[in-house]
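# step 3/5: fold
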Amino acid sequence: MPGHKGKEKLPTVPLSGMLNKSGGKVRLTFKLELDQVWIGTKDRTDKLPLGSIKAVVSEKIDGQEEYSMMGLQLGPTEASRYWVYWVPSQYVEAIKDAILGKWQYF
């Protein structure tokens, strides 16, 4: 999926074309009606409850700012982060909002 530097809402189709730390292709599917994110690879699909993800961190890729790397923290420590590379940057904030909820200022 092509990336750009703006911001967009989550697409209604799975985000594909990304890679995990092993270089395998990754697809993220957001099933908000089930409160789940599905992480799909060639071999398996993990269906994770949104509430089980403790944190989401991201950083733009140097020289390719339209893409980011994103870590989904699945356990109590940073060592439990599942890294996804080449995430289209326009969806990073929408992914964080979907997983962690939107912050509201009073």
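# step 4/5: annotate
Helices lie at 92-100.
# step 5/5: archive (pending)
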